[in-house]
Amino acid sequence: MPNRSLPFRPFLLGLILLAALGAPACGRPTGSGKLTGHTRPLAKQVGGVTITEVRAGQPDTAFAFRAAPGRLLFTFFGFTHCPDLCPTTLGDLRKALRRLGEDSGRLDVSFITVDPDRDSAEVMTRYLRSFFLVSHALRPASRQELLAVQAAFGATSSVTRKADGDSDVAHTAASYIVDDQGRVVVEWDFGTKPADMAADLRILFDRQNGAATR
Fold first, then answer.
1. How far apart are CA 1 and CA 11, in angstroms?
2. CB of 188 within 8 A of CB of 174?
3. pLDDT for 50-65, tens place per residue?
4. Domain boundaries, the chain
5. Domain 4-11+36-213 in CATH: superfamily?
6. What are the tens digits of pLDDT across the range 124-145?
7. pTM of the model
8. Residue partners of 106: CB distance under 8 A and separation at least 6
9. Which of 9, 69, 155, 162 pairs as cysteine with 150 (C-beta 3.0–4.6 A)?
């Protein structure tokens, strides 16, 4: 049985229940000028947590989840052996960036491995370069570091090693956009279309442009 990547079921079930109940804490407004992804009246604050960033052949550094001024940060939890969720999400983001033109340069990409035992700095660097010229490969130095970051984002993951050396990996399938204040300003479910990603990013960049002129 090959390595599997499955959306973390409790997380997805929670989203379904919230949608069914019409919970005000998480909505999906549609229409011109409104975000397609999930938004919250009180945004998650993740700017206070850090994780280890790795680069092949270079020293590790600390990475904070806060976009640079005037930019946005895309964050996704996954692993390089992922057969479906991860390459699909990263590929869709790449398509979305092509739609943005010059504004594509204002989005930084970060990828957090939930399987650090197999995802070395070299493996992660090679994997991410197959999607983006520049990105942040984030490899937790400990289980505690990963858990702290997951708690901030509301994400979860699990890795089960099997006797035959294979692994089952489950992780939250959502992706997150973080602003320069360290706030999660939109969350995308797995399967969000590149056109919707691009539209949301344009709205968020426009909001930043408006704030900068005030």
1. 25
2. yes
3. 999 999 999 999 999 9
4. 4-11+36-213
5. Glutaredoxin (3.40.30.10)
6. 999 999 999 999 999 999 999 9
7. 0.83
8. 70, 71, 72, 205
9. 155
